[in-house]
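Board notes (copied after class):
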Amino acid sequence: MSRGGAARRAVLVVAFGVLIVALSLVAAYSSSTYIPASTASSTLTLALPGPFSGCPALSSTLNESTRAVLDLTRPSAFQTTYDGQLVGEGGAIVSAELISLSPETVVYTLNNHLSWSNGRAFGPSDLVAWWQRAKGFPGLVGQGYRDIRTMEVARSRTQVTAIFRASSPFTDWNLLFRDVEQTSSSEGCQPSLLQTRPSLGPYRVLSASASRVVLVANSSWPLNYNRFQRVVVEAADTTHAVGSFYVGFSPGVTNADLGALAAHNRYASSFVASPSVLELAFSPVAPLVAPLEIRAGLSWAINRQRVLSRIDLTGGAATATVPTSALYSVLSPLYPLPELGPAIDVHHPNLTGSSLDCVACAARVLSRGGWIRVGGHWSWGGATVVLRVAVGPSEMDHRASQVLSDAWNRLGVGVRWVAYSSENAAARAVATGHVDAGVYTRPLGSSPWSVLSSFVPVGGVIAYPTGVTSPVLTSTLRQVATDFNPQSAATSWEQFDQWLQHQFWIRPLATPPALTLWSGRVGNVQPASSLVGLVDQVANWGVAPPHSVPTTTTTVRTS
């Protein structure tokens, strides 16, 4: 069944064909038309979900807020745009160029006139040391680095060439060398390490704690001269919005966010579809949900439009949707179109119609899976069925859990909810069988690679594990890791996405709306679909003239 759209894939084939000949990604910065005079004396307040940690970028459990701070204070080959695309940063790593596919060869050009905050010169040894360090990390975190056979330093010391193994090229090479740490930087995740480790970016870290990071401009940075000279990054929600120079991001709109909008009617705001997915996940090691028919019946019992209406507090202003993918963000050009076809036959339901809902099919499918209807409830193995279900900490998670409770109780399925303090902890409880299922919000990132680690047994600690493995996954990983043809790679990803949903291990419930809120005196803000995509713009922001302060409360962007 085609879900991606042939026209979009044809465009991608042409675009990537050009890139394969020679790909040089250098950051392009838009010039601000706003008055820069006050950026030296004004402090920008940036509010993000907390807490902050001192983990390096290679840590698989690093949260988005800390990763965004690293983007502003560490050298990167690429950064994220407001719409989730990757572009060259153009600072310490001036450019990254794919010059050959046989073997895969990438040339990194460096600005060796820059120094770290401790005075040590930045140079090729930092990239080589980062490669040596990164390839030792388990699983997908280190896979791309392990695929590099050698790093060759030019005599000029302004270029480093990464030559990949012929047997294992890495197609998503633009994910590598992001937020590079200085050679011999200390290990650990204490928030204070953000400050004690040397910085090199448009900003350096003046102080750091789990709730507050203070940044000051790096005077030697060769770009963005009119940026704010001081940025205070707070672990706070939008209810703490204050001041003339404020930008806040909420990854899932809450009642508190709506209150902040009402309280700051002179601020600008924008709703966008978040690059995250609210999902129902089933444990691969819980016997109660082991049969495919049980997972299908429990999934089909849920009216996802009802979930959507419960979590979307914007009254339709946001672009929240029922997702069609467990791998792609709704903003991705490869996001599959909704399946079009006849409704599921209630009397003979076909489990492959996974993207559709069929509340009337649920009881029949549960019976096929071995559960026995006894009066008003279900039994299995001689005991009354009571699902143990994890729920994440967000308001959106809990709102969705109410809809699931109502749906399953009407079906006669008992539920016992177990609350977890983080989305990742809820996912881990599902993967390890501490619960039968879980409802939580999972980030999707800019590439399926960032999601794939959830499905690969890599050893060590990984983010959002599912515990789900299969030959289908192994085959997909082998194909996409070495396939530079975007059309066939997209087909491989699509096959895995469909398999995952047809097996009902993951049931995407909703794409939550995200909110960007900012005071009108902050100029050049482009509302972003992701937290990192917003923060990576900070160095481009300036001070807008007073007459540019918006008079409207909300600006709506469609995805």
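Comment from the instructor: The radius of gyration is 24 Å. The domain at 22-270+514-556 is CATH 3.40.190.10 (D-Maltodextrin-Binding Protein; domain 2).
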